[in-house]
Amino acid sequence: MKHDDGISNTSGNRPFEDVLDVNLQRRKVLAGGLAGAAMGFFASPALAGMKGWGKDDDAARGHGRGRPRSRLLGFAPVPVAEGNGPWPSISADYDYQVLIPWGEPLEPGGPAYQWPPSAADQARQIGIGHDGMWFFPMDDKACRDDDDRAHWGRHAGRWQGGENRHGMLAINHEFGTNAHVLGKAMPDNLDDVRTSQHAHGMSVVEIKKVGRSWRQVESANARRIHANTPVAFSGPVAGHALLATPNGNIPLGTLNNCANGHTPWGTYLTCEENFNGYFGASGAWSATEAQKRYGFSANGFDYGWHLFDRRFDLSDEDYRNEENRFGWVVEVDPFDATQTPVKRTALGRFKHEGVAITEGRGKRVVAYMGDDERFDYIYKFVSDDNWKKMRRAGKSPLDHGKLYAAKFNDDGTGQWLELSIDNPALAARFADQAEVLTYARMAADVLGATPMDRPEWTTVAPNGDVYCTLTNNSKRTVADAANPMAPNPDGHIIRWHDTDQHVGTTFTWDIFLIAKDTHGTEDSFASPDGLWADPDGRLFIQTDGGQKDGLNNQMLVADTKTGEIRRLFTGVSGDEITGITVTPDRRTLFINMQHPGEGDPTVANFPAELDGVTVPRDCTIVITRKDGGIIGS
Questions:
Q1: Quick check: 29 pLDDT over 90?
Q2: HSE-up of residue 297 (Cα within 13 Å, Cβ side)
Q3: What would the pLDDT profile of 274-304 be if each residue is shown by its tens digit?
Q4: Beta bridge partners of residue 204, listed in sequence order
Q5: Full domain range(s) for residue 568
Q6: Does an H or E element contain 136, and which?
Q7: How is residue 77 annotated by DSSP?
Q8: Distance CA 397, CA 380 (A)
C-alpha cells in the first residue's frame, strides 16, 4: 500500500510501547494462548496452559533446534535463498496461476489493455493496486437471503459448502501512482485525472474454473466501482450537514480501497484507507483541527487531482465537507450490479485497513477494525440485536450498534471504550453522534484509547481469538535493552480474546509474534500486513515492507498451536503480497501481487517475461496444492 508517512495523532494518549514495555517485563510472550489468566482473567480454553517462551526458549517458539513439529503445516517451505528477485517463488508442493491483471477487460470482449490507458477504457477494465478481496460462490446467490440455509460459519468465518469452481470475485484496487498509471509524475488535464480515478476503487468479476485453470466469464453482474461512481450513505451520519457541500453535488466514489470484509448475508465490505492523500489545495487554505487529525495537506500524495477536479480541492469553499464523504466502510452486493454502494457510517470514519466480521453472543454482528497510521487505534463495532432479526425488520445490522476503541492495560487486560455522545466527555466536545462517528479518531483521543503501531488487518480465529497485524512504526522513540521494539521498523502481531462472546467491553491480550525475532532464521519476515485465520488453527500472514535476509514480500503460514511458521509464497522485487480468500472447500487460494517493481519496468515486468521494458501489472495469484489438498497443509 501507499503508506501515509506522517503522524496525525497528537493526543498525548499513552503510547502502546509504554504499555508493552511494562507488560513484557511482567510476563513472557506466549507461543500459544493468552497470559491474562495469570492476572485473574481467562484465555480461550483451546489456548489456556500453553507454554510461554523467553529469550532463549527457541524450542517453545518454534525456531532453531527442538522446534515442535506442526500437524497443520505439511508443505515444503520456500527457502530464504529462493525468496528474492524479479520472479515469484512458491512451495514445491504448490502451483500458481495469474488471473485478472490490471487493465484486463472487465468482461471478455471489453477494451483490451494498452499502456497508458484512456479514462474511458480504464472505467471498463480491471483497476490497479489489487488488495483485499472475497470469493462468493454462485450458489450463495440462491441461498443467502434464506436465513436457515445461509449456513454462516461463526467459527470458520466463511460460508459453508457452495460452489468451488464458479463464483463472483470482489476485489479492491487500493492505489496506483501517476508514474505507473499515467507514465508521468503529474496529470496534465482532467482526462488524466479521470484515468487515475477510474483505476481506483474495486471490481466485481465472475470467474470459473475450466479444466485446471480459472478464467473470467461473461456476467451481468460484473462491474467497476471507482472514484466517480454514485454512492449512498446510511446510518447515523446519513443526511447530516457534515456530508453536505455548498455545491450540492451528489456523493460519488470510493477510493484507496485497502482491505475488506464480508457479511453473513452475503455482501462485500470494502474499506477506505488513505483517502486524505487524494485531496490538496490549489489556493490559500488553512487546515481545520479535524483535517489535521486526518492528515490532509496542501499537496496530498502528489496525485494532483485537486488541480483539475474541484471535488478534491480543499481550498474550494464550494466543496467544503467533500473530504468527510471518504474514510468509511462500503457495502457492495456482488450479485447485483444495479445496487448503489452504501457507506455504513455507524462503523466510524478513519483510515480503515479492513473489517473482520464475526457473530457474537445473541447472533449480533461484531466487526473488528484497524486504523492504519502510526499511533492510531483499534476499533470494534457491535450491532444492537440479532442480525437475522434486524434484517427481517428491514434494518441493516451495520447501521445500528455501538462503536468502541481499544485501551490496552499493562497487565494483559483491556477495555473497549464506547464512542457515544452519551459519554459526558464526548458530549462536551461534539455536537451529536454523527459528529462523533465522522471524527472517530478525535473521539477516541478524548477517551484515552491506546495508540498502536499501524493497526492493519484483523481476523477472528475459530476459538474466538482475534489477531491484528501491527505493521511497523519507525517513529517510536522509547527504547531499551528489554524492549526490542523501539523503534519498531519490523512490526508484530497482537492477539486478544473478548469477554462475553465478542460483545463484552473487556478483553485479555498478548503478543503472538514479534517480526524481529524471526530475522536470521528460515522463518524470517517483517512488516506483517494481510492476515487470515483458517478453521483449523493456521494463520496466514502477508507482508508489506522491507523484508530482511534478502527476501521479497511474502506469504507465510503459522501454526497458532505450536508457533511454527513456514513460507508458502514470495513475490517479486518491489511488490506487496496482500489480499486473501479461498473457495469454500479451501482447496483454491486467491492472493494479490500489488505494485510489482513499484511499477518500474527496470525492476520487474511481472506477469510478463523479463525484458526490462514492459510495465509490470498488479494481478491476482491463484494457488493450489499439487495433490489437491487443503491450502496451508
A1: no
A2: 14
A3: 999 999 999 999 999 999 999 999 999 999 9
A4: 170, 223
A5: 16-51+60-577+586-625
A6: strand 130-137
A7: P
A8: 14
Q: What is residue 482's predicted lDDT score, i.e. its pLDDT? A: 24
Structural domain total, the chain: 1
Measured distance CA(201)–CA(189) in Å, rounded: 21
Over residues 451-458, the mean pLDDT reads: 94
* Amino acid at position 323, single letter: E
Domain-embedded: residue 2: no
What average pLDDT does the structure give for the chain?
88
Strand, coil or helix: 513: strand
3-state secondary structure of 626: coil
Q: How far apart are CA 125 and CA 249, in angstroms?
A: 26
Cell 477487460 sits at which residue?
105
Instruction: Please report, for residues 75, 167, 448, 465, 625, the alpha-carbon distance to residue 629 in angstroms, rounded to integers and kept in the order given.
Output: 10, 20, 47, 26, 6
Return the SS3 of 576.
strand
344 assigned to some structural domain: yes
**How high is the pLDDT of residue 94?**
98
Strands (E), 186-307: 201-210, 213-217, 223-225, 232-234, 257-262, 268-272
Residues whose CB falls within 8 Å of the CB of residue 400, separated by 6 or more in sequence, listed in order = 235, 346, 383, 384, 385, 390
pLDDT value of position 5 = 67
Average pLDDT over residues 113-124: 98
pTM of the predicted model as reported, rounded to 2 decimal places: 0.91
In the structure grid, which three cell numbers stand for residue 507, read together? 478483553
CB 518 within 8 A of CB 525: yes
Those residues whose C-beta lies under 8 Å from the C-beta of residue 424, and which sit 6 or more positions away, are: none
Where are any strands of DSSP class E within 345-425?
A: 352-360, 364-371, 374-376, 378-386, 401-408, 413-418
Report how far apart, in Å, the C-alpha atoms of 524 and of each of 288, 541, 549, 565, 611 are: 43, 12, 7, 9, 30
Whether residue 554 lies inside any domain: the answer is yes
pLDDT at 219 over 70: yes
Preceding peptide of 616 cis, ω within 30°: no
Nearest-angstrom CA–CA distance, 314 and 294: 13
pLDDT digits (tens, 9 = 90+) for 569-607: 999 999 999 999 999 999 999 999 999 999 999 999 999
Residue 65 lies in a domain: yes
**What is the structure's pLDDT at 70?**
79
